[in-house]
Amino acid sequence: MKDISLNIDDYLPLRDVVFNTLRNAILTGELQPGERLMEIKLANKLGVSRTPIREAIRKLELEGLVVNTPRKGAEVANISAEDLHDVLEVRRSLEALAIDLACDKITDEMLDELATNIESFKNAMSTKAATEIASTDVGFHDIIYKSTGNKRLIQILNNLREQMYRYRLEYIKDQESWNRLMTEHITIYDAIKRRDKEAATEAILGHIDNQEINIRDKMGFDR
Amino acid sequence: MKDISLNIDDYLPLRDVVFNTLRNAILTGELQPGERLMEIKLANKLGVSRTPIREAIRKLELEGLVVNTPRKGAEVANISAEDLHDVLEVRRSLEALAIDLACDKITDEMLDELATNIESFKNAMSTKAATEIASTDVGFHDIIYKSTGNKRLIQILNNLREQMYRYRLEYIKDQESWNRLMTEHITIYDAIKRRDKEAATEAILGHIDNQEINIRDKMGFDR
DNA sequence: ATATATAATTATGTATACAAAAAACTCAAA
DNA sequence: TTTGAGTTTTTTGTATACATAATTATATAT
User: Fold this and answer.
1) Tens-level pLDDT at each residue, chain A (223 residues)
2) Same fold, A14-76 and A81-219
3) CA nearest neighbour of B79 among B160, B143, B14, B23
4) Does domain B14-76 have CATH number 1.10.10.10?
5) CA dist B136 to B115, B143, B221, Å?
6) CATH architecture, range A81-219
7) Which of A174, B63, B199, B204 sees the fewest Cβ atoms within 10 Å?
8) In chain B, what residues touch A55 (CB-CB under 8 Å)?
9) Contacts of A74 in chain B (CB under 8 A)
């Protein structure tokens, strides 16, 4: 059957196009922490005027991906050891909440999605596709988030995850961690399936903590 | 002793002035949910051009205080029963985290600040100053947030609180609730002082739940 | 060579101009 | 009175202009 959705509203303001572009550039490391975002340069590169660039920067600023100094301009935010700690402390708490809600609310369809995701993960591992692994990993957690049915929770968790996403690219290349990552996902999946909140919470917290250790290592933070 | 801080940098970009102004107008109810934010009208009223207005709106948009429809414009966000539920679900979890951290980290000075705050609350009650009560109530929680030492947590909790702040103005006028509010603050304070995490958590959750009930009543949501 | 003052350049802050979409209005027809 | 086509007005989206602060470059004196 054909999908006749007359996509009347495929219009996106330039500011949002720019916002998505810049955000992606930051998350993939194309724009590095500390790098200046110069309006005219970006405007030329993207072929638009300064106006949408500025509005996009305002949003990135509020999202914490960019820091702005009045009359000096914006630069890509640089996360400190303290920031990382703060983000992870909050994230631990909200991941626990998410798992708790997931155990209550997840549907059979979503459980299937998780199972499928784990299979994709195995495939990506066998083909050693790091990018694929990374996006599958993100997808696994997305399913859990979605199953909570709490839009605000999803939004905040995505934002917190985003804060460290760019620093994760390095460690995800490290094949050593793939097996551990997959084992942890399976443990989490099993616990949710059994609706075993205690086990699920323990598993997710361990999962986050391991990520924290990896990121700290890669970033050269001690402790 | 004279305070010789040559406040060289008391400069604030107009966009931030506008941002604060609009935000305040929304939180105090001067701008009501559903009300349109028309750039030219606001620009004239505030005596600036559209540019800073637009940039401020972009930030309010990301903060969730305003919703924007492309080519139609922005309006003050209207919180639904579902939104309220989502916000409170997350907030409960993070308030519990905050109290937990506070029990570990709060200093004697900050405990004193809490005690002072409770005294201010009593004073405001005796003079029946509703505005005073409201700001003292906000201040009480601010002290607890601050004691966690987690900037990200503080930021998110402030944002969550903000989402319902404007709906709280009504119920704070209701003298009935003042005594309960104060009693709850005292209970929370005592528990933190004893570093009794269990009691403190229970107290803060009850406190949030009571707020939820009040807001639901005032907003005419059932359940 | 270093430091300092000054001029030239560049970037941001703000206002304004113009195009195009959306909303409001007008007025004739049912 | 309501409906609807066509027109006017308003509003947003985007680009650009101009002023001023920040940075860089230049030149001069020590």
Assistant:
1) 444 344 445 789 999 999 999 999 999 899 999 999 999 999 999 999 999 999 999 999 999 999 999 999 999 999 999 999 999 999 999 999 999 999 999 999 999 999 999 999 999 999 988 888 989 999 999 999 999 999 999 999 999 999 888 887 777 777 888 999 999 999 999 999 999 999 999 999 999 998 888 888 878 886 5
2) no
3) B160
4) yes
5) 12, 11, 27
6) Up-down Bundle (1.20)
7) A174
8) 54-55, 58
9) none
